[in-house]
Amino acid sequence: MRQFSKLAAGIATSAIVIAGAGIATTGVAAADPTGAFAPPQGCSQSTHASKNDASTVGVTHTYDKTVSDASFATGTIVTYKIVVGTTGIGNPYVNFILDRPPVGFDAPVKSRVTAYHFGRGQVTDDVEAKPSEGGWSVNSTGWFVNSGNPVTWEVSYKVPDNLKTGDQVHSGGFATGGTVGVGTTRPGNSVCFTVRDAKPGEALLGSMDTGGVGSSDNQLSSTGSVTDIITGVLKNLIGS
User: Model-level pTM?
Assistant: First the structure.
């Protein structure tokens, strides 16, 4: 009976979220894409750099940093991606990648590296991020890189609650280390997102996370999907 009561409460909560989503869809979906929620000029989601000098032995190494969306609400999860590649022979091993997140961000909530493994191809593994040089870094004995297989680090942080809608949040740059001249420091390669209002379901499900009802990966609260909300509530409550 207790489990049924929790399930009923969860479904009732979902109904509230669904009602809110229906109301909000009329206003938000019809909003002018050039209006308040459009990314402003000078706030770029991506940055690119390359290195071709005596240290790279005639090979060009490439470096990209991107942020996973143009806008986020406070309390949601933002993911930065740093990709280290090469355009030809040289095949460096990357053993260090450093990310400098925006000022005021806490420790990463998720960190994973995708790299080539002999006999297995590109493999994604969770890798612990550690504090380093004013940012957070991942380390390895060596991630292999060639022209078809870059190494990619995806690192996620919670957007602080003290930011305001409309704020532009600029990250710091990044740095890498390894063999064959792949090491570089790019403090100016910053990316940016804009703080927006929470979508229907984000604020409510964000508070539900602490009770075990929301999504720990922020998938429910970042999409605001009615189907995801119902599915998430049923899975968490029936399985409890």
Answer: 0.70
